[in-house]
Amino acid sequence: MSLARAYTNIALVKYWGKRDVAQMLPYNSSLSLTLDKFYTETSVEFTDQAEDQFIFEGQQQPVSAKLMRVLDDVRQLAGSQQKAQVKSHNHVPTSAGLASSASAFAALAVAASHAAGLELSRRELSILARHGSGSASRSLYGGFVLWHAGTDDQSSFAEPLSEQVDFPIAVIAVLVNQQQKSILSGAGMQAAVTSSPYYSAWVKTAEADISRMSAAIADQDIAQIGKLAETNAMRMHATTLSANPPFTYFAPETLQIWELVRQIRTKGLNCYLTLDAGPNPKLICHMQDVSKIVEILNAEIPNLTYTLCQPGPGAKLMT
Ligand code: DP6
């Protein structure tokens, strides 16, 4: 039995759209920060049982096509026919709204390959995790991570920009809504690719954002990182509003918080917002400003749940 842990990540330059759905190749490169507060632990054991088995939070679940894909890849690499028993557990601080497939598939890649006796490099693990979920390719690493879009299966992998982050960047995850997202990220990005006339502009600007964001990280410039992340996120969300039919991941509270974030900036605090395929914003700021920012938000919108995150580590084997 092999047990692995992987942390979730927040994209500062988003992955949004697959050029090749079967191969899980993205249109644009993306850049993320691995977070320290939410992780998935997954154990895998290959046995002579008749079928693959997936137990999530102690409950047997159907084996999804994505899960099967990763297990089949591992079997192929190991030359094995054995079926897997996969047990997975999410560690989320009081409903942080941070659940993601990124930590799940990164932990699965590490645990399953080890359980099958493979010794894969981190690049190979990143590719394997990508076959389950694109954003999972980045959760193999800690800190700031770049996923190269690549041109084929072997050239589309993530690598760390800086696994050790020595400056005080903070991400405040705000929970406005715990409901299951209505349009899953995979379907949402596909709708944008096929029906938004702005999609090509998204790809072009996202690629340009990668070099600007890399420079801001090298400069340890938290305000610039936040500014670029907010602009990039809103451009991604513009492809949903411009899709046919149009849709949005914003909830009323999301817009309310965005407005407050802009007000917070007028008070001289650096605070920027990003959000993924769901209504819960993540605020990017300096550690020293966290309590002031939360105080302002609380005064305007009481009863929100906040989770303060800092840069987190890469995926690792626990056994
Ligand atoms: C908006 O990685 O969940 O969070 O590859 O279809 O599993 P699949 O999609 P997923 O998409 C993540 C989209 C995003 C942006 C990002 O994390 O880069």
Q: How would you characterize the overall build of this protein?
A:
The chain is an alpha+beta fold and 319 residues long. The protein folds into 2 domains: 162 residues, Ribosomal Protein S5, domain 2, CATH 3.30.230; 141 residues, 2-Layer Sandwich (Alpha-Beta Plaits), CATH 3.30.70.890. It is built from 8 helices and 14 strands. Strands 1, 4, 5, 6, 7, 8, 9 and 14 form an 8-stranded mixed beta sheet that branches. Helix 1 runs antiparallel to helix 3. The longest helix has 20 residues. The radius of gyration is 19 Å and the shape is globular. It starts with a strand and ends with a strand. The mean pLDDT is 95.
Could you give the topology of this structure?
Elements: E1 2-13, E2 18-20, E3 25-26, E4 30-47, E5 53-56, E6 59-61, H1 65-78, E7 83-91, H2 101-115, H3 122-132, E8 144-147, E9 158-162, E10 169-175, H4 185-195, H5 199-218, H6 222-241, H7 252-266, E11 271-274, E12 282-286, H8 290-300, E13 305-309, E14 316-317
Parallel strand pairs: 5-7
Antiparallel strand pairs: 1-4, 1-14, 2-3, 4-7, 4-8, 5-6, 8-9, 10-12, 10-13, 11-12
Helix pairs in contact: 1-2, 1-3, 2-3, 5-6, 7-8
Sum this structure up briefly.
With 319 residues, the chain is an alpha+beta fold.
Fill in the keyword field for this structure.
319 residues; alpha+beta; Ribosomal Protein S5, domain 2; Alpha-Beta Plaits; 2 domains; 4-stranded antiparallel β-sheet; 37% helix; globular; binds ligand DP6; lipid metabolism; MVD-like_N; EC 4.1.1.33
CATH class of the largest domain: Alpha Beta
Percentage of β-strand residues = 25-35%
CATH fold node name of the largest domain: Ribosomal Protein S5, domain 2
State the secondary-structure class.
alpha+beta
The number of helical runs is 8
- In CATH, the architecture of the largest domain is 2-Layer Sandwich
Number of domains as seen in the coordinates: 2
Question: What's the main sheet like?
Answer: 8 strands, mixed
* Radius of gyration from CA coordinates: 19 Å
The first-to-last residue Cα distance is 8 Å
Record field, number of beta strands? 14
Shape: globular
Could you tell me which ligands this complex binds, including any ions or cofactors? Answer: ligand DP6
Pick out the low-confidence regions.
Answer: none
> What would the average pLDDT be, to the nearest integer?
95
Strand/helix succession: EEEEEEHEHHEEEHHHHEEHEE
Helix percent band:
25-40%
InterPro entries: GHMP_kinase_C_sf, Mev_decarb, Mev_diP_decarb, MVD-like_N, Mvd1_C, Ribosomal_Su5_D2-typ_SF, Ribsml_uS5_D2-typ_fold_subgr
Domain Diphosphomevalonate decarboxylase-like N-terminal: 6-158
Keywords: ATP-binding, Lipid biosynthesis, Lipid metabolism, Lyase, Nucleotide-binding
Protein name: diphosphomevalonate decarboxylase
